[in-house]
Amino acid sequence: MRKVIGIGETILDIIFKNNRPTSGTPGGSVFNGMISLGRLGQDVCFVSDVGRDRVGRLICDFMQENGVSDRYVNRHPSARTAVSLAFLDDNNDADYTFFKDYSYEGLQGEFPPIAPDDIVVFGSYYALNPLLRPRMKAFLEQARRAGALIYYDINFRKSHTYEAATLTPVLVENFDYADILRGSEDDFMALYAMSDPGAIYRDKIGAHTRCFVYTAGAKQVRLQTPCLDCTYTVKPITPLSTVGAGDSFNAGIVFGLLKNGITRAQLPTLGKEGWDSIIGYAMRFSAEVCQSYDNYISHETARALTQEE
Questions:
Q1: Spatial contact of 57 and 124, defined as CB atoms under 8 Å apart
Q2: Per-residue pLDDT reduced to its tens digit, 69-87
Q3: Which domains does the chain have, with CATH numbers?
Q4: Crossing angle of the two packed helices 245-259 and 29-39, in degrees rounded to 10
Q5: Where do the H-state alpha helices sit in 40-118?
Q6: 98, 137, 144, 191 from 166: Cα distances, Å
Q7: Whole-model pTM?
Q8: In the chain, is it the N or the C terminus that has fewer CB atoms within a 10 Å radius of its CB?
Q9: Are the C-beta atoms of 186 and 221 separated by less than 8 Å?
Q10: Are 262 and 278 in contact (CB under 8 A)?
Q11: What is the average pLDDT across 276-301?
């Protein structure tokens, strides 16, 4: 069975609506997708750091309860596990405030073994952070040598726009590692002040990454590969919260790749029918999470998907 290996931050998300807390749930941009995939019965592990505190224990217990191995989560005795406050606006889009502990050196533990065509998922500022970069790069080099299929979600928040120019060399390095790259409209506005996915693929992505998925919220999804250029219309829904929507989209793509048995070598020439199925799962996962306060697909949906032919 192919493994899915995520690497990223762990965090406790506390969601506010009308300035009142409505829910608190373990999260993190890559973490959220791993929980969905664990609920789907995939072989999933996660590489991260937590404090040896009550929040860290809660997160690791939650991973185990949802089928995600916490063997490669480092527990630091003196660190505090990160917390985020997500304030929902009138459109139920989130504005985040983060509380993180930078007093310890992360990613110092053992990495999991990686086999050919295992799927490795990484992204967000965690993949750019100078404090973590040497170990992140070592992990990505290990994945590339092993022949893993590497999925990169840029997830670049506008609060880091002032760093965009400085981080460009590291960002491009991540592009080069990726077999599939997903970026949102917000990501590319923050990075390059660009919103045309065709121009973004031509000028920024295509020379580095074979397969590019561009998401524009409730408007559209655009897929570009060496042999395809497809646009998908997003079905209208009434969202409760957009927290975790992009992360669940990523989980849907990974699930679609596994469900259809798509290997790394097949990606550049994969036809429209195969991508239609993969993007369909991604949009389905994202829509469900938008209609709840959870960051991941429900157990009920996971059971139904595993029973589908």
A1: no
A2: 999 999 998 889 999 898 9
A3: 3-103+115-294 (3.40.1190.20)
A4: 40
A5: 54-65
A6: 22, 17, 25, 11
A7: 0.94
A8: C
A9: no
A10: yes
A11: 94
